[in-house]
Amino acid sequence: MKKAFQAIRRAAYSTLVFLFSAALWIVSLFILGATSIVIGVHTILGPGAAFIASGIAMLIACFLLKRAVTNG
Length: 72
What we know:
By secondary structure, this protein is mainly α. It is built from two helices and no strands.
């Protein structure tokens, strides 16, 4: 019974750490990183290029988020 309780506790802790890490990555990559890239491209090249840059930035951010979450 004690081993089962410890396993459940470890799984809950691991899940909590995963959710906290994922939330931090989402905030830092999507909001801060992609927004600064899009604003810079919009300022330099205009709104058309900003849409392209936002798509590329989101794809890269999704890839980095996936790697961060799956690699621990």
